[in-house]
Amino acid sequence: MAEYKTVRKNAQDQFVEKRSRFIGYACPVQTEQEALDFITSKKSEHWDASHNVYAYILRDGTMRFSDDGEPQGTAGIPILGGIKNKKLFDLYNRVSHFMLPYFNVEGDGKLYLEPRDDNRLGFRVGCTGSEYVLYQYLDPFDLIDTDDMCFSEYFREVARTPDLKKMKKCLWMLANRYTEDVVYTVPLSLDTYTESAGVKHIGRRSYCAWGRKDNFTAAEKKALESVKNYVKKF
Q1: What are the CA-CA distances from residue 95 to residues 45, 125, 209 (Å)?
Q2: What's the CA gap between 12 and 24, in Å, rounded?
Q3: Are 175 and 98 in contact (CB under 8 A)?
Q4: Which residues of 29-65 are buried (b: 16+ CB within 10 A; e: fewer)?
Q5: Lowest-pLDDT choice from 49-53, 77-81, 144-148, 152-156
Q6: pLDDT tens column, 59-78
Q7: Are 14 and 6 in contact (CB under 8 A)?
Q8: Which residues contact 20 (CB under 8 A, 6 or more apart)?
Q9: Which residues contact 156 (CB under 8 A, 6 or more apart)?
Q10: Whether pTM exceeds 0.85
Q11: How far apart are CA 125 and CA 225, in angstroms?
């Protein structure tokens, strides 16, 4: 019998974001009818909700989701991605006060964690299923006011680890500092980064954390040069 993971028992949680209340439910099921019955019961319970979105996966591989009126691909698919990518949500549960899930609908269709602070730019975290992956990430529309589509986003892997504690520690270093002004925080590894308040200064000052001296590895120097070369065009 092939191994599989499911939730142990019914669970519920909720949060408020921008004056909207989001209520989530999880329930173990054996059949699709059980899943549909559970969804129907919650729709009846929350008949006045703006949207009742859902997703489920059965042991035989059956997958279903619904955006229920939300913009296409922005609700049901991210939930489905969360079910399939439990490891990333294990991390999110530990860094949720300074990171948020982001589903890249218009891009690669993958789920990432990005800084909760809108003014903190420069990185995101993904997951392969077995490892956390730290990326340098810069969107040209965050760097300059332009409609010129010749500018492409900058997206570069700098580190990966299966260790949740290591990635949590890294994200605490990068994101757990709120700012009223835009700050570009671009990682070079799990414990080094470059940071600046202006586009032209990205890469000029770099930092080591956790007691390390400023003796950067060859890989960290390469990551630093890469992002510096990208921002030169601006």
Answers
A1: 31, 12, 18
A2: 6
A3: yes
A4: beeeeebeebbeebeeeeeeeeebbbbbbbeeeeeeb
A5: 144-148
A6: 888 888 888 888 776 788 77
A7: no
A8: none
A9: 135, 136, 137, 223, 226, 227
A10: no
A11: 21
Residue whose token pair is 């308040």: 197
Tokens of 20: 């909207």
Joined tokens for residue 199: 């586009």
